[in-house]
Design goal:
Radius of gyration of chain A: 17 Å
Helix content of chain A: 25-40%
Radius of gyration of chain B: 17 Å
Shape of chain A: globular
Helix content of chain B: under 10%
Oligomer: heterodimer
Strand content of chain B: over 45%
Number of domains of chain B: 1
Number of helices of chain A: 5
Number of helices of chain B: 1
Largest sheet of chain A: 3 strands, antiparallel
Structural class of chain A: alpha+beta
Order of helices and strands of chain A: HEEHHHHE
Largest interface: A-B, 42 and 37 residues
Strand order of the largest sheet of chain A: 2-1-3
Order of helices and strands of chain B: EEHEEEEEEEEE
Number of strands of chain B: 11
Chain lengths: 142, 120
């Protein structure tokens, strides 16, 4: 099995990038004073996810979090998974790139994670450091 | 994919070890628009960036580094003196990329960062 980095290089050479129509808003419960964060999917990664045969199973990334630095990791040489839909790719990305205290361990009542169409992200960043996830179904998501 | 396994590369005059090339290559890089709706223009081995606030971004790597001793470097354009880019390792799977003018975080239309080190 070739290394993930080599598979990504090969995929980038043949796949057109895909800009996602989604963003993921989240608030880390361990940092209550921090503004809402916005996860921006990468277009080359999304192209690889939609094509299949490049990315490893998400479980390998999750297991590798417990592997000490400098020790062999599972995800670079894991057997690639097949094609995903864009929605499945976003769920994969949430597990991979957002801390588990947001998507797995949080038990509070506030919404701390929302998948939203990109149009619902405000384009005016004047008050970016005051963004919080709207707790009602309003026009804007943050 | 076929693999060419060689120890050295030469142009007939100069010779360099392939390890020199592999170790010195950027393992991840990304160029993005930090204004309006933040969007990535192009990249390699980056799965996403986390927009954590004005001028504060975290590139997430597709292929993790072996340890947090890797190195980051980046740049952005800003119309005054005193701008600085902070590109540092955070974890093996996530870097830091902050853009400041003076002591204040700022957004900019073109931000680029790359990371060099040993992959897992």
């Amino acid at each position: 099995m070739t290394h993930l980095w080599d598979r990504l290089a090969e995929a980038k050479s043949r796949l057109a990038p895909v800009q996602s129509k989604y963003r993921v808003l989240f608030e880390d419960p361990t940092q209550p004073d921090a503004p809402a964060a916005v996860l921006v999917p990468d277009p080359n990664w999304m192209a690889a996810a939609l094509a299949g045969g490049v990315l490893p199973p998400i479980d390998t990334y999750l297991r590798d979090r417990d592997v000490p630095d400098g020790q062999p990791k599972e995800h670079p040489y894991a057997e690639p998974i097949g094609a995903m839909t864009e929605e499945e790719a976003i769920e994969y990305l949430i597990k991979k790139d957002i801390p588990p205290q947001v998507w797995r361990d949080y038990q509070g009542n506030r919404s701390v994670l929302k998948i939203v169409p990109v149009e619902l992200i405000p384009t005016d960043r004047s008050f970016r450091n005051a963004w919080k996830i709207n707790q009602t179904e309003m026009e804007m998501a943050a | 994919m076929s693999t060419l396994s060689v120890s050295n590369i030469t142009d007939g005059t100069d010779t360099v070890e392939t390890g020199y090339v592999v170790n010195g290559s950027a393992k991840a890089w990304v160029n993005w628009n930090g204004t309006g709706t933040v969007a990535i223009r192009d990249s390699f081995s980056v799965s996403s960036i986390t927009d954590s606030g004005t001028g504060q971004y975290d590139p997430n790597f597709s292929s993790s580094f072996d340890n947090t001793n890797y190195v980051g470097s980046g740049a952005f354009a800003w119309g005054s003196n005193g701008n600085q880019m902070i590109a540092l390792p955070d974890t093996v799977s996530k870097g830091r990329a902050d853009t400041l003018a003076g002591n204040a975080y700022v957004d900019h239309v073109t931000i680029g960062v790359l990371y060099v080190g040993d992959l897992a």
